[in-house]
Automatic annotation (TrEMBL):
This is Transcriptional regulator, MarR family. Pfam families: MarR_2. InterPro entries: HTH_MarR-typ (IPR000835), MarR/SlyA-like (IPR039422), WH-like_DNA-bd_sf (IPR036388), WH_DNA-bd_sf (IPR036390). GO terms for molecular function: DNA-binding transcription factor activity. It comes from the Bacteria.
């Protein structure tokens, strides 16, 4: 095998894992302040990007087991953040929608999280930031 030119770099996971741990820890305090869990925030964010979804489709979209998110959905509904209605075409299926109250809390959390991300993004020049965010968007699954 030939030797690669240039300095070796760490694997992507080795570079991203410490950053992800810091980002998730910073998000956790914001979520707790607003009374949301990470799964609750994921549900609200996903529902805000799309119309009614079934619980099964939502679970797939956020990569969660459909039976394990039921408690999260119950909590979000109890807080008035989502609505669940029977599907008129199949009464066994529940259709989900974010409420205005749910959108307001999701927007508040997202704004606060993104303001906190300036700690890391502020290390980049405007051009580096633009390229970094564009590259992440391109590489992100889904």
């Amino acid at each position: 095998m030939g030797k690669r030119a240039g300095a070796p770099r760490q694997d992507l996971a080795a570079m991203l894992a410490p950053l992800m741990r810091e980002l998730l820890a910073a998000e956790q305090s914001v979520l707790a302040k607003h009374g949301l869990t990470m799964w609750g925030y994921a549900v609200l964010s996903t529902l805000d990007r799309s119309a009614f979804r079934t619980q099964a489709a939502l679970a797939e979209a956020i990569n969660a087991d459909k039976t394990r998110i039921i408690r999260t959905l119950d909590d979000l509904q109890d807080d008035g953040y989502i609505e669940r209605h029977p599907d008129p075409d199949d009464r066994r299926v529940r259709l989900l929608a974010i409420t205005d109250k749910g959108r307001d809390v999701k927007d508040a959390v997202q704004d606060e999280i993104q303001r906190g991300e300036e700690r890391w993004l502020g290390e980049l020049t405007q051009e580096e930031r633009r390229v970094f965010l564009r590259a992440l968007a391109r590489m992100a699954p889904g």
